[in-house]
Structure formats: C-alpha cells, structure tokens
Amino acid sequence: MSEPPQLPAVHEAYLPREHALHRPRHGKRQLTALVSALLFFVTPTLLWVVGVRPSEIENHKLAGFPSLGEGFGFFTNLPHWATDQLSFRAGAINAANGISEGVFGEAAPLDQGSASNNGPIPAPPLQQPGAPNTGPTLPSTPGSSQAGYRKVVQGADGWLYYGYDSEAKCTPAQDIDTTMKRIDELRAAVEASGRKFVFVVTPDKTTMVPQFLPASYPGKECSQAASPNDWYKITTEGHSLDLRPQLAAEAARVGHPIYAPNDTHWRDEGGLVLTRALADTIKPGTTNSWLSAPDGQYDAVADLPLLLGQTGVKTNTRYNLRPDGVTDRAGEFIGSIDQPVHRSAPPIVGTIDQPTLVYGDSFSLASSRYLEAAFTNLTYLAYSTDKTPQSQAVDQFVNSHVVVLQAVERNVAGGLVPFTDEGFIAAVKSALAQHPIR
C-alpha cells in the first residue's frame, strides 16, 4: 500500500505560484487589518484612562465589557462593547446629520431599519446639583420592528413623531375587536366583585397634533384609514373615556399643543386633563372645588431625539393642584412603576379616598404629579413590566376598590396590551371572586 500524499514542508506562501496549494500572504493587507482592529478595540480603553467617557446617546444602556466566562460569546460581544464605548460617536452622528442636511436638504436617515422592542425612554429632567426631582423617568414602549417603517417621523418646523403611532394601526399584533372583547371581560370581572372599573386610552401625538406631520411617511394611508374605526371601537365597545375633546380644549386655552415638538408624551397640561377626567368619572363633581395654576417651568430630556442618536430638551410648565381650593397636593413625578408604587395622603375636600389602582404606562407616569393630588390612596403599576410577577399584579387588583386601566392609543391599536391575555384575565377573575367588596 502506498503512503498517503504529504503536505509540503514549507509554508504555502513560499510554494511556486504554479503549485495547486500556493496561497499568497497578503502581508500588507493583513498588517493594515490587524492594526485597524487593534486601534478599534484599544482606543476606548485609552480614552477611558485619560478621563474621556462615552455617553448614552441612544435608547439603551452602554454595553459592558464581555466576560471570558461567556466562551465564544466573548468574541461576538466584543464589537458591541467597542462600538458603544466610542466617546466620539455622538459627534460622528451630528456630523453625518450636518453633511446630509447640507448636501441633500434632509437629516441623515439614522432611524431606518429594524429596531428593538424598546421605544422612547424619556430621561429624567435636567437638574442642577442639589435640586429636587421635578419630572418623570418613563418606561419603554414598543418600537419599530417592521421593514419600511421609521422609528421617528420628521415633520415640519422641527416636529418629531413616534413612528410606531402609525405602524401599530397598520400591523397590529392583535385585532381591535379581540382587544375590546378582552377588556370587556376584564371590566366584567372587576365590576362583578363590587369594584369600579375605568378604562382610559390616552391619544397618540399623531392623533392630537397632526398638523406638523409630513405630506408623506410610511404607514400614513393605512393608519389614517384604521384610526376612525379604532377610536369608534375604543369609545363604544371599550367604553373608554374620550380625552380628545378635553385635550383639544386645553390646547386652545393655553395657546400651544399639549404634546412637545420633540417628545411623544404630553406636557403637564395633559396630566391635569387625565386627572380631572378620572376624578369626575369616579365621583362626579369632585373637581368643582379644584384650583390649579402655573408653578414654574422645568426642563427634561426629550425622548424622540434619543432614537435618532441625538439629544434634545423639552420645557414643561409645572402646575400646582389644590383640590380643596387651598392646599397644594401636587407631588413629585415618579421614576418607575415596574413594581407597585404606593402613595397616600390624608383625605381633604376634592379628593378620591377609595383605594385606587392605576394600571398604566408612561402616560400615567407623566401625570403622576397630579394623580397624587387627587387620590389619597393610590397604587401605580405598569402593565408592561416584567419585573412584577402576575400574582403580585393580581394582588393589586384585589387590594383596590377602584381599578383604572390606562393605555396609550398605539398600544391598544397595535394589540400590545398584556392585560388582555386570557390567562391574566382568568387569574384576576378568580382572585376578585374570592375577595368581593360589598
């Protein structure tokens, strides 16, 4: 038997070019690639040593240095760490925008392509050292995940809109009829136990301030076609409080839109509208004694620029709220409701004193300063949180005499409302049946 063929005793690069196994070394190219890779991964560390720190310019925490215990994941996660740690990244994004606007007359399309399921996360207010917290840190909402849609729609006069406002109506995860049917089941379970149930849908910015939207944008036609039917179902079958007329009236009164140009949430005036509507629905005439007036301004970080890799500031007017016409009961904005947050105060004229659960989202947080003024026994909890187990969420229903279910229009239209899960509704129904209020 003949011996198997042996590999050449020399490196393949030194074989004659005619040899079948000859492979060139590409020495210069390899050296350039190695030097570039070394600079990419070492530069963040060197900058950190001399005191240069990267900032969170987008809607996620900066990636940490990967652990060797991750095995091969160490190598796959290393580029994410290096990219996030580039301290000049924000400047590069601004430069790209400047070039795009100067050459093409429009901002760079930094918000295209697939995104995570995290939408805008409004940051805390800008504070001076030692100053009290004056505004909310809001939890995430869904983000664009469909090809062709935009995370941010850029409108006229610098106005920005959340792209999911339109996408939700065009590609709902659950049809509006199913969503309303499930909410009616949840309502029936709460009311059958002797408790009061209030459902309120907070309108999208695209619904309340459409005049600055561009003439054309992804999802315009299908979202505008779906919106009237969605609102009809929401207000008739879902029996939601319709805040749109009151929000429009308040905007006319103050002389400016209730929603900020660079943020997807409403200003403080919207929080007051929600609080008044809830109080008068739960106990008609509650707000007859109320007095409220401007109480200074505060700056907060706007959420929509974050989705473009930029930063922006919105200025809000803060208000006091005197339920009895004398005592200012306006509180501080809450930072998070991923877990139950309870607030209590002595009852006075013009307040709702029944134990109340606000099962809501970021609009509840943006209104928390004023909700605390109107409700003396109040619990907040986010319906989208993964930090509170279902059993604990159900307990909050049991502990309340009034359940306020608040959800933003885009989540309801898109079917991204976990409280319509059949298992959750069954758990609430069973728990409340065992603990009725008579």
Structural class: alpha/beta
Average pLDDT figure:
83
- The unreliable regions are 113-141
Order of helices and strands: HHHEEHHEHHEHHEEEEHHEHEHH
Q: Strand order, biggest sheet?
A: 4-3-10-8-9-7
Distance between the termini: 96 Å
Tell me the radius of gyration: 27 Å
Total helical elements: 14
- Main sheet overview: 6 strands, mixed
Strand content: 5-15%
Percent helix among the residues? 25-40%
Instruction: Count the beta strands.
Output: 10
- The global form is elongated
Structure description:
The chain is of the alpha/beta class. Helices cover 37% and strands 12% of the residues. It contains 14 helices and ten strands. The chain has helices at residues 27-49, 73-84, 89-104, 164-170, 176-192, 205-208, 220-236, 244-254, 268-282, 362-365, 368-374, 390-398, 409-414, 422-434; strands at residues 152-154, 160-162, 196-202, 241-242, 294-301, 313-319, 341-344, 356-360, 377-382, 402-408. The strands form three sheets. It has a six-stranded mixed beta sheet with strand order 4-3-10-8-9-7, sandwiched between helices. Strand 1 (152-154) and strand 2 form a beta hairpin. Helix 1 (27-49) packs across helix 2 (73-84). The longest helix is centred in the first third of the chain and has 23 residues, at 27-49.
